[in-house]
Amino acid sequence: MSTAITEPVVPYDEVIAEFDPVLGLEVHVELGTATKMFCGCPTEFGAEPNTQTCPTCLGLPGSLPVVNAIGVESAIRIGLALNCSIAEWCRFARKNYFYPDMPKNFQTSQYDEPICFNGYLDVEVETDDGMRTFRVEIERAHMEEDTGKTSHQGGATGRIHGADYSLVDYNRAGIPLIEIVTKPITGTGKYAPEVAKAYVTALREILRGLGVSDVKMEQGSLRCDANVSLRPSPESPLGTRTETKNVNSLRSVERSVRYEMTRQAAILRAGNKVMQETRHWHEDTGVTTSGRPKSDADDYRYFPEPDLVPIAPSREWVEQLRAALPENPSVLRARVQAAWGISDFEMMAVVKAGALELVAATVAAGADQAAARKWWVGEVTRIANERGVELVDLPITPVDIARVEAMVGAGALNDKLARQVIEAVLAGEGSPDDVVATRGLAVVSDDGPLLEAIDAALAEAPDVAEKILSGKLAAAGAIVGAVMKATRGQADAARVRELLLERLGVAE
Amino acid sequence: MSDLIRLTAAETAAAVASGAASAVEVAQAHLDRISEVDERVHAFLHVDTEGALAAAAAVDSARAAGATLSPLAGVPLALKDVMTQKGIPTTCGSRILEGWRPPYDSTVTARLKAAGVVILGKTNMDEFAMGSSTEHSAYGPTHNPWDLDRIPGGSGGGSAAAVAAFEAPLAIGTDTGGSIRQPAAVTGTVGVKPTYGAVSRYGLVALASSLDQAGPCARTVLDAALLHATIAGHDPLDSTSFDGPVPDVVGAALRADVQGMRIGVVKELSGEGYQAGVQQRFDEAVALLTGMGAEVVEVSCPNFPYALAAYYLILPSECSSNLAKFDGMRFGLRVGEDDGDPSVEQVMGRTRAAGFGAEAIRRIMLGTYALSAGYYDAYYGQAQKVRTLIARDFAAAFEQVDVLISPTAPTTAFKLGEKLDDPLAMYLNDVATIPANLAGIPGMSLPAGLAPEDGLPVGLQIMAPAMADDRLYNVGAALEAALLSNWGRPILQEAPSL
Questions:
Q1: By a Cβ cutoff of 8 Å, what residues of chain A touch chain B?
Q2: Which of A99, B73, B281, B352 has its CA 20 to 30 A from that of A109?
Q3: pLDDT digits 0-9 by tens, A276-330
């Protein structure tokens, strides 16, 4: 719930005519490690509050951290996938500030010695002149721990002001995070919102491909803070930025950047100064509201974490990890498009649906690429949209789709039955084979029952039989339809037509 | 047996193992002693009578069942209140932790329990181990058994006084800038700060993480070695724990032979500020070592004069961060939540203002300042450079000699209240002990006699290279034996009986 605070905005076209936007994106990724960053507690999402804690992640007096080696490995793999340099030696640092969901009142993070630095990610955006590649430079990717989660109870807004009391769940405290920070992204012009969205999309694809995180924005395992500033022209110094938080979907990334640009433009146009602050995105109203002031002088009193020893990843290890990286999604896209021989337009449809890896995996499981694309981009995407979830989050696998398509190819299912099977799999009725067996779904391929049904249909409609016999083959459709109805759609329509014509002794 | 409380730890363990005394009898004798004298000494903040007797009974049962006993099984011990012990109050000498019972054992506590050591209770200390007199305890000072009007040293005054007053043959201390060694010096006992990383810090409530180290307090060098061997060794729960074999400290204490060893006297740790009687006893000890065949030379450590200043930047910096967690949100004291409609920040502020004493607040403020943007390089950064120089001084010195020696503290025990209003004078007590903490090397303090002018104990400090803790015990035991034969009886027998 948000209070409607309407701030003046400037139409987007006018923003672009008068200002040059600069972006900066900070993405926090929760790693999918089995245990927390500095202790052995499990990380499973959704457990009873405060059941996944120990002296260390509760920050009890005397407790000490121990680094999760898988967390370090994941950080390095992420860095390598983002074309970063990997530090030969780095340390953790303490970021000191008081907050009830920070058990130690400092966050163990990294400061001037991040494990990954100086990388980039190329992202593609559809422009007026076709697809264009923007290079987003990565300043750093570093390791840190998540905080606990505070929920404010009572009061009208669910926010801290006006709440009766607050509850803290420390299950999340100490979950490994990687923070990926871009350098200022310039030169996007009017495509700034699209570039922001494309960057987070591409980053998410890479992270998913690495298998380091489940990257679910709605559950907070991937969180994006969008920094936006405007300046009169690309030659001007950087303007004052705001940092928008609570951007919990890809769509919000684009919308919040666009909104901030229009809001800041109104302030600047009126001759006022943009206040450096964090802002809170409201998905429902499509606006940002003021959070807390944030200045560059915020003093976290960083210093090297004395409870941990430095991390010095050997070059051999880094090279091993590099060699074992999965293919970069943009490289994969180009290769796959060539292999499938499909158009840019067809490829974009797959990519936009977020179905590339799923289609590729379905092809790998034996399906034809066109059929695999048809199912994922068509029927399955339709259901995902209905349910408001991501394709990958649906409980159906590429192997399932390949199996359905194999049954279609073998004539055991027709299109309509295949859709029923997919829906049943998504409804949790088991594998495609389970569904076919339990529901008794199968194309009737035995000619005996079909001939009986044809005879019955002909007897019902002797006039139609006459028309067919007189050479009006189009009339056959009515009989085929009646047979399909009688067999509850389980017949192969083409075979029915064949048998019908045979029965009447009419040639095609 | 007649006087169980006067036995050394080694003798006590032997008596329990042989059946000459039961562990329960030993524990009871010490509990009785505590009842008798601790009202005056105030070494203990909490006495766990029930737990101690149960632990002792378990040792007796194990022996009766024919189990092989650990070298310290059945020996009573006093635990500094900065170490967690599951279910037992742990206050760190602070109001802010009043009533907190930790849900877990420190690694040191767990190892003591596993070795059949009988933990009698928790000892008094300067709040969060900040101080050199135990006067900064929120629960009142500990009194020096040699003179109840004098300080027992600090921060581990409770542990040292408990050992000196025969309330326990052994105690655990922690040493961030001298908190084991300086109390040992002024109470006529033995105290060792092992190499940084030799003893796990898991469950040691941190003052300054890069300096803190737990170690043994005892009445003899051998007893300290037996305790050192029991608590040392790698701990996967402490990332800074040293992963390697523990030096044979017990073997070294039994060897006690300095023939042919090279011993360096640190030039910078003498002269101005050192009490005449302290210097005199130190010089006599040097002569003894020479007499036993050691080659004693003077060694210069030119950066030591900067050690105290660097220490009082690094320690407060780390401490300001380590003590941030004491905010009344999850454990311990909470103040002022019902007064008006306070914000979380106000409750945190009220709790910290009420819960921390003056010295803790002073160091938190110093550290917060030293780490602030714009000051970090000038203070914390510069202090870290000095720390490197101190380590280089030691490295150069240990190329010339096997161990270094100095007086442990510049003076004998001063009067309670004498330096309470003068922090700098208080800090100077640790001028000789701080360099070892900054460099992470081990140090021992053992009694060198009584200062002629006041009849109070003088401590001699031995320092060795990192992970060469055994050298402390070898030299310490040799010197202890030579001094004992001069004196005719242990120095603690000179203490006025309580």
A1: 55, 58-67, 94, 96, 98, 100, 103-106, 166, 168, 297, 299, 301-303, 306-309
A2: B352
A3: 999 999 989 999 999 877 665 579 999 999 999 999 999 999 999 999 999 887 7
